[in-house]
Design brief:
By secondary structure, the chain is of the alpha+beta class. It has 3 helices and 4 strands; from the N terminus they run βαββαβα. It has one domain. The strands form 2 sheets. A two-stranded parallel sheet has the order 1-4. The longest helix is centred in the last third of the chain and has 21 residues.
Length: about 70
C-alpha cells in the first residue's frame, strides 16, 4: 500500500479532524482502486511541501521512463 499526501486538502478533505479526516468521496474511491492511503499534509508546515514535490517528481520521471 502506498500513501498519497494531499497538498491542497481543501478540495479533498470534507471534515477536518486530526485523527479521522473526512475524505472526499472521489478521492476515497480512487484510493480504494489504487490501493493507497490519502493523508492530508499538515497546515502551515512548509517542510511537508518539499516531500510532496519530490514524490511527484520521482513518480513523473518513473512514468515517463516507462513510456
Amino acid at each position: 500500500m502506498s500513501i498519497q499526501r494531499l497538498r491542497r486538502a481543501k478540495s479533498g478533505i470534507t471534515k477536518a479532524c486530526f485523527y479521522e479526516p473526512g475524505v472526499n468521496r472521489a478521492y476515497a474511491e480512487m484510493a480504494v482502486h489504487y490501493d493507497t492511503a490519502i493523508v492530508p499534509a499538515r497546515p502551515r508546515k512548509p517542510r511537508d511541501k518539499a516531500k510532496v514535490e519530490v514524490a511527484v517528481q520521482v513518480a513523473t520521471r518513473w512514468i515517463i521512463a516507462k513510456c
